[in-house]
């Protein structure tokens, strides 16, 4: 892998979850997976304890500036920042939430300033962060605000070796989904997806498949009219702009093996329509990537897993995949000429 122009910044996630141990596991596997230099923001002592609990030999080195990460990465896990806690896996609390927020804030600031080529976020506990006044629905919205953007300008994509999916609507009750699906929303989000596929994945003409909302994509209006009245007109408008959008496709067949080769990313109408197939296919290598931002942000597509934190059972595959995807996107952004071919 070519090296990004700066180190990546990893946030801890909730320190009682599996984020810290997986950051250590990723560093321990850096040579095997060809990972570029990265640093972790805050939690040096906690990381040492997490590595020891997992049985990993991970020296941790505090650094004074992000540019120092490359010098120490070969022999130690670089950590920037002094905030820390004792390691208490499986015991989330408000002190842990404060450390998680400090780590997230610092890592994001590094990416916004350009001192980090990308940010890779560890899994957080939204309920714990809410207790300390975190007002955002999740890290995606926090990222958008940190970049001076409205929440709706950030688009969540789930990506694995076999599939990429984007939920059109995300964290809302299923009963609200039909009312939220508008032509404007489809146009705005698919334009972001198209641009990101070109910029960060070097696809010259991204193929974007849109799911229907209803069973059998509405079956010509017999099972709902959203496909006829909203989704199909939006697809026609996108195609008129030169975006290679197709659909609406029945979601029950779009993710079958014979269909997945016909598109580069699928846009689903709601959260589970996008996440169920991705997690079924690529759970241990799934990455959450935020599209539409001036910075690169990825995250492993799993939660804090408090129940197994500190046991050594957590698989680092998704964290490693998130680091690789962020690094590859950073290299492409540093070489704009490659994004058109």
Which features does this protein show?
14 helices; alpha/beta; Isopropylmalate Dehydrogenase; 341 residues; twelve-stranded mixed β-sheet
Commentary on this structure:
The protein has 341 residues and is α/β, with parallel strands linked by helices. It folds into 2 domains: 1-154 and 293-341, 3-Layer(aba) Sandwich (Isopropylmalate Dehydrogenase); 155-289, 3-Layer(aba) Sandwich (Isopropylmalate Dehydrogenase). Helix content is 41%, strand content 15%. It has 14 helices and 12 strands. The protein has helices spanning 19-28, 30-33, 44-54, 69-72, 94-113, 126-131, 139-146, 177-180, 183-201, 226-240, 251-254, 257-260, 271-282, 317-334, and strands at residues 8-10, 38-41, 60-63, 77-80, 119-120, 155-159, 164-167, 207-211, 244-249, 265-268, 287-291, 297-300. A 12-stranded mixed sheet has the order 3-4-2-1-5-12-11-6-7-10-8-9, with helices on both faces. β11 and β12 form a beta hairpin. α1 crosses α3. The longest helix is centred in the first third of the chain and has 20 residues, at 94-113. It is globular, with a radius of gyration of 20 Å. It starts with 7 loop residues before the first strand and ends in a 7-residue tail after the last helix. The mean pLDDT is 95.
Produce a short descriptive summary:
The protein has 14 helices and 12 strands. It has helices spanning 19-28, 30-33, 44-54, 69-72, 94-113, 126-131, 139-146, 177-180, 183-201, 226-240, 251-254, 257-260, 271-282, 317-334, and strands at residues 8-10, 38-41, 60-63, 77-80, 119-120, 155-159, 164-167, 207-211, 244-249, 265-268, 287-291, 297-300.
